[in-house]
Amino acid sequence: MVIASAPGKVTLFGEHAVVYGEPAIVMAINKRAYVEVNLRNDSKIRVIAPDIVIKGVVLTFDQNIFSVESEVASARSELSYIVKAIELIAKNYGVFKGADIRVWSEMPVGAGLGTSAAITIATIKAYSEATGLDLDKKSIAVLGWQTEREVQGTASPMDTSIATYGGIIQVQPLNNDINIERLKVPMKLPIIIGYVSREYKTKDMVAKVRLLKEKYGNIINPIISAIGQVSRKARISLESGDLKEVGELMNINHGLLEALGVSTKQLNDMVYAARKAGAIGAKLTGAGGGGCIIALTLEKHESVSLAIKSVGAQTLESDISEKGVLIE
Amino acid sequence: MVIASAPGKVTLFGEHAVVYGEPAIVMAINKRAYVEVNLRNDSKIRVIAPDIVIKGVVLTFDQNIFSVESEVASARSELSYIVKAIELIAKNYGVFKGADIRVWSEMPVGAGLGTSAAITIATIKAYSEATGLDLDKKSIAVLGWQTEREVQGTASPMDTSIATYGGIIQVQPLNNDINIERLKVPMKLPIIIGYVSREYKTKDMVAKVRLLKEKYGNIINPIISAIGQVSRKARISLESGDLKEVGELMNINHGLLEALGVSTKQLNDMVYAARKAGAIGAKLTGAGGGGCIIALTLEKHESVSLAIKSVGAQTLESDISEKGVLIE
């Protein structure tokens, strides 16, 4: 039996713009997804995910036939990452063994906290370890990104990178590679995550921005560049420990995301409630269209958390997780 | 007795960016300010503004001494435009006669609808007419802008230009001159104005953007350019009658203003309420920090108006006013 875990993430800066080559800054949070692999004597893949959905889901993969004993669509979509990751390991490394796989998570599914990437990366780690493959982190990250691309059509490398490496990283797509730089942040970064259910999928929000960019290139391109500039400046602020600037830049980034049309009334309600309660900066995080916001708080954790709850959202408290993917 | 009137305005696109040389698009609304001038036989200036404030205000200007029989600060600030306009006419044209001046307005004072500019321009028109000066519109606009600059320290030429010319104009500052182009808009432009009391003054919001620009030039300069691009594209959309695009561009412009830090929770509440009720675009208008939003509505006037009221605001319905300053 092998258990691997990988952290979820929040995007501090640069979501959406990263799709067009700008840098983004992503932080691993200390909430994790876990994948347990027990090899079988046959060639069946059996996935049990008791925490991911309310109803038990049993998925079987045998003779290339993928069958799910559940009608819960969101669970099926999470589980397809597991199946695809194993399929790619078989394809890229010629290794395939049947296994019982159990998955659980400390994060809500579909909130934009990178649960599917964390599950993907933990699956690759646990399954490769159990089958005797010795994959380094770079290979795990590349395979994870490939998994997300094949499941979703397109994907940013952010979530799979951060689930692999932990900490705070700057991610920038470079041709078909991922340029990753680890930031040295000399302090804690206490954040409150507020979340509501998503109204739209990531794919839809990315498509919405693309349409807007095609229609209004002269306007949207400078907005995307400005987001890139926010990320570059934020990196300096983070590495020099200037949290007040980090907060101001979060607020600017939120407005630019609003200009790209990816915010919602509920996200704005959370952002403004957090700021009013004393957060030094707040923004939507991830693809938008519902989902999560992050609020940077130095002292007023309790009041910021209550303020976010008061507009009908749930909250998680977190900080930087220095641990990437690991064997438990 | 001479009565002149001038329209209020809403900024459709480009507020704040116009301070830094970008074009803005401003629309005269069919709500007006009125100024009545009755020449006196002495050299006293007596101003009565029954509608501007609840309490009657009597202001006297005699031997260069300006005295107000009211403690209402906002009324005094409106009235200082009248006094300054008359002072500048005396200075620039050598014309001075005592007068009783009565002022009233169909717009709320201090909401950002250009009431002070409308009063200034109507004052210049009525007073110059009464004293036999024959000022053309360009001279009135220049004198009005000078009046606002001297009262406020700095001022954009937008409000005084639109109060002079009416219609929809593109305004762009050019050295010390005002470049004004009239737009040919082939349709009606029905808007709902939502307004709440201002939390901050225009001056404070302009200063806030300037500080942000000084601190984060690499980020704020592209945002200001992007707002300029929104105005340029919106001009094309307006002149070609594409209201759907006008609405989309309003939404983008709102986000960019949010990024400049000039929106508030109440403004966002109004904007999102209007969009949800069927407005095809909505944005804050003017300096922000409270004040007004505009929502472009094709058919759902009633539901958009109700939705804006439901978040605690008041509303005005309007359309383009083709009439600039005129003698009633």
Describe, in short, the structure shown.
Chain A is α+β, with helices and mostly antiparallel strands and 328 residues long. In chain A, 42% of the residues lie in helices and 26% in strands. In chain A, a hairpin with a 2-residue loop joins strand 7 (168-174) and strand 8.
Describe this entry's structure for a reader.
The structure is a homodimer of 328-residue chains. With 328 residues, chain A is α+β, with helices and mostly antiparallel strands. The first copy, chain A, is 42% helix and 26% strand. The first copy, chain A, is built from nine helices and 13 strands. In chain A, strand 4 and strand 5 (65-68) form a beta hairpin. The first copy, chain A, is globular, with a radius of gyration of 19 Å. The termini of chain A are close together. Chain A binds chain B through residues 212, 215-216, 218-220, 222-223, 225-226, 229-230, 232-233, 248-249, 251-261, 263, 265, 268, 272, 276, and chain B through 212, 215-216, 218-220, 222-223, 225-226, 229-230, 232-233, 248-249, 251-261, 263, 265, 268, 272, 276.
Number of domains of chain A: 2
- Succession of helices and strands of chain A: EEEEEHEHHHEEEHHHHEEHEE
Judging from the principal axes of the Cα atoms, what is the shape of chain A?
Answer: globular
What is the strand tally of chain A? 13
